[in-house]
Design a protein that fits this description.
This protein has helices at 3-22, 27-40, 81-96, 101-114, 120-137, 142-164, 169-189, 196-204, 210-221, 225-255, 273-290, 298-317, 323-344, 348-356; strands at 46-50, 54-59, 68-73. By secondary structure, the protein is mainly α. Strands 1-2-3 form a 3-stranded antiparallel β-sheet, with helices on one face.
């Protein structure tokens, strides 16, 4: 393969890797997919390097030739299962020979420029429905569930606005934690509820870094410690932002004379099995919807959420503590997701992450 063919191939592979990494894929998956693109285009012996902010591909035609190196930075990150799915199938088509390199480049450019089918307002409503589902999971009463619904939508609007202003994620998390706590202060001050812990807990679910920690563990287990450390640091900073925001809200509550007695963010009381199952189904499906998962994946993710929440509460009621029920539910999600993903033609990651969201990692 000549250099005229090598550079376009490396560029295509890097652009595929960039979109995958920025959409929530693990470092191992990104590395494999970039190499798959190179092999499908006839370029072998490519070395891929993936870090949290940079992708690098290296190819040396022969021992006597200098190595060709191309680098691409990854700056924007948002869980986007629509783009993740479309790129995954683009690579499958390229590997199977259904499309060639130029067709793949054109298809990738269309994915990047076409945007999403769902409007931002609909996605914001989806986050509100997820907050409603979390309220059910926490055994909250109707007023707390309503607060979680509107709180999740409010946090999404605030974070979108701050993101457009290019504020770092830390400050977006601070603003979200502050909003969730002030919402609890308002509900308590008006006498609508006497359970500030559940209001705050349901409100900050949208902000929790549990999914980021899951990605960090995945990268560590698959041999990418540098990327894992970077993801862990990002998740830690995001959590610190939530803590700062909640603390600021408590300070404001004290200043205005509202007493939040026995406030314990993260507190929950597990409800009955039917309510837990319904809450899990709503939470998983709404999370997948708000993360732009394809419509065909919404029903399966809802079923997975129902299964994981039901398995957890049954094991918990059997006296297995908290960790073992979570592990049992997560294993079930993994086993079922692998089978379903191939049938509905979506990456397994889409179903796995949505399926474990009702376990509320990071709470």
């Amino acid at each position: 393969m000549t250099s005229d063919d090598t550079y376009p191939t490396l560029d295509l592979a890097l652009r595929v890797g960039e979109l995958l990494l920025s959409s929530g894929a693990g470092a191992a998956d990104v590395s494999v997919q970039m190499q798959n693109v190179c092999i499908a285009c006839g370029l072998r012996g490519v070395s891929a390097s993936v870090t949290f902010t940079e992708l690098q591909l290296t190819h040396q035609q022969s021992p006597d030739d200098p190595g060709l190196i191309q680098v691409r930075n990854v700056t924007q990150r948002e869980i986007d299962y629509e783009d993740l799915t479309r790129v995954d199938w683009l690579v499958r088509d390229l590997v199977s020979g259904r499309i060639d390199r130029e067709e793949a480049r054109a298809a990738l450019a269309q994915i990047v420029s076409s945007g999403h089918e769902r409007s931002r307002r609909v996605v914001t409503l989806g986050w509100g429905v997820m907050g409603l589902g979390v309220g059910l999971l926490l055994g909250a009463r109707p007023i707390v569930i309503a607060a979680a619904f509107f709180g999740s939508m409010g946090i999404d609007v605030i974070q979108r606005y701050l993101s457009r202003q290019r504020l770092p994620t830390f400050y977006q998390q601070v603003a979200g934690g502050l909003f969730a706590t002030l919402l609890a202060v308002f509900v308590i001050a008006t006498g609508l509820s006497e359970h500030p812990s559940r209001i705050v807990s349901a409100g900050i679910i949208r902000l929790l870094a549990g999914v980021s920690y899951m990605g960090a563990v995945q990268d560590a287990l698959t041999g990418f410690p540098l990327t894992a450390a970077a993801r862990s640091l990002e998740a830690t900073l995001a959590t610190a932002g939530v803590i700062a925001g909640v603390s600021g809200g408590l300070t404001i509550a004290t200043a205005v004379g509202v007493k939040l007695v026995n406030l314990t963010p993260g507190a929950s009381a597990y409800p009955s099995l039917p309510q837990m199952a319904i809450g899990g189904a709503i939470t998983s499906a709404a999370f997948a919807f708000s993360s732009y998962a394809p419509a065909r994946a919404l029903l399966p993710t809802g079923v997975l959420g129902l299964v994981s929440a039901s398995a957890f509460i049954l094991a918990y009621r059997a006296g297995l503590g908290v960790s073992w029920p979570s592990a049992i539910a997560a294993v079930l999600v993994g086993l079922v997701s692998y089978t379903i993903a191939a049938r509905i033609k979506v990456p397994t990651l889409v179903l796995v992450v949505a399926g474990v969201v009702p376990l509320l990692p990071g709470l």
